[in-house]
């Protein structure tokens, strides 16, 4: 049997009040957050807590995730980072190291795979996880208790938000036949571009024009999120030739870095 779950994170201001959540169904989910964190930390924490919550179940795990950063970190870059002493190709320390090390520990011996889903296009599990992650972020923003969720049956959550006690509770019933993932087809960008959105730089062509709602909203000065946070954010678009685009992706991957880290290294 395969457990299918969505994992998502949210940050208001990025960094700012942040939340994470994983979701199987309405009787099986958990959430938590921090007063101050990044979206990437929320995305990683959601995956970490999902693996922790299902550690007692001898089933395959399918993780639906709308973050290419998380998927690449776990499935492509982590092995190289470890071999270099958890450092990137340029010798700088890997970001979010504590969370990545914890994920590396909990996935050992597990049967799992990740599937990228485009965020905020109506995928039911992704939307449910996003709603709960955002709800946790908003609770921390307002200084209110964050909804923790029922957790996974038979497992006491080990979630430990920064500077706080555990945010998720045990209990709840896991229903048989959890929802399965649907494959979403996405269009590919006709323009080679790299767009700054939220706290990551993404190759739009590489990831099917994936920019989550959090990222679109924060770069739109008229969006509710931008008005709420008051942050001034900038969207930068760079047109590249096919060859330039290939070199950019290749060089960032050779260094074991996101495109964001690679480009920031060039201008720092």
| Largest sheet: spatial strand order | 3-2-1-4-5
Main beta-sheet annotation: 5 strands, mixed
The CATH architecture of the largest domain would be: 2-Layer Sandwich
The CATH topology name of the largest domain reads Nucleotidyltransferase, domain 5
CATH superfamily of the largest domain: Ribonuclease H-like superfamily/Ribonuclease H
Question: Helices and strands: which structural class?
Answer: alpha/beta
Write down the overall geometry: globular
Q: Give the total of domains.
A: 2
What does the oligomeric state look like here?
single chain
Helix content: 25-40%
Low-confidence stretches: 156-232
Note the beta-strand portion.
15-25%
Give structural attributes.
268 residues; alpha/beta; Nucleotidyltransferase, domain 5; 2 domains; five-stranded mixed beta sheet; three-stranded antiparallel beta sheet; 8 strands; 35% helix; 20% strand; globular
Report on this model:
The model is unreliable at 156-232 (pLDDT under 50). The chain has a five-stranded mixed β-sheet with strand order 3-2-1-4-5. With 268 residues, the chain is α/β, with parallel strands linked by helices. β1 and β2 (16-25) form a beta hairpin. The chain starts with a strand and ends with a helix. It is built from eight helices and eight strands, in the order βββαβααβαββααβαα. The chain is 35% helix and 20% strand. The longest helix has 19 residues, at 124-142. It has two domains: 2-142, Ribonuclease H-like superfamily/Ribonuclease H (Nucleotidyltransferase, domain 5, 2-Layer Sandwich); 193-267, no CATH class. The chain has helices spanning 39-53, 68-83, 97-106, 124-142, 213-219, 224-229, 242-254, 259-267, and strands spanning 2-11, 16-25, 28-37, 60-65, 112-116, 193-197, 200-203, 237-239.
């Amino acid at each position: 049997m395969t457990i299918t779950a969505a994992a998502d994170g949210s940050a208001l201001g990025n960094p700012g009040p942040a939340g994470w959540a994983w979701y199987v169904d309405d009787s099986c989910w958990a959430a938590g957050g921090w007063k101050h964190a990044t979206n990437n930390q929320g995305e990683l924490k959601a995956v970490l807590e999902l693996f922790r919550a299902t550690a007692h179940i001898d089933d395959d795990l399918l993780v639906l995730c709308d973050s290419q950063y998380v998927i690449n970190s776990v499935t492509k870059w982590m092995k190289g980072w470890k071999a270099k002493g958890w450092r990137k190709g340029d010798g700088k320390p890997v970001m979010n190291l504590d969370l990545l090390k914890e994920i590396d520990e909990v996935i050992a011996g597990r049967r799992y795979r990740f599937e990228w889903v485009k965020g905020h296009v109506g995928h039911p599990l992704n939307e449910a996880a996003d709603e709960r992650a955002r709800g946790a972020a908003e609770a921390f923003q307002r200084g209110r208790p964050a909804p923790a969720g029922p957790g996974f049956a038979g497992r006491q959550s080990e979630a430990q938000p920064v500077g706080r006690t555990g945010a998720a509770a045990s209990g709840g019933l896991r229903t048989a036949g959890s929802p399965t993932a649907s494959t979403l087809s996405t269009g590919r960008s006709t323009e080679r571009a790299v767009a700054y959105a939220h706290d990551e730089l993404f190759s739009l062509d590489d990831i099917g024009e994936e920019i989550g709602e959090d990222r679109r909203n924060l770069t739109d000065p008229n969006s509710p999120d931008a008005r709420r946070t008051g942050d001034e954010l900038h969207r930068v678009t760079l047109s590249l030739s096919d060859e330039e685009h290939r070199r950019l992706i290749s060089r960032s991957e050779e260094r074991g870095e996101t495109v964001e880290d690679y480009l920031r290294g060039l201008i720092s």
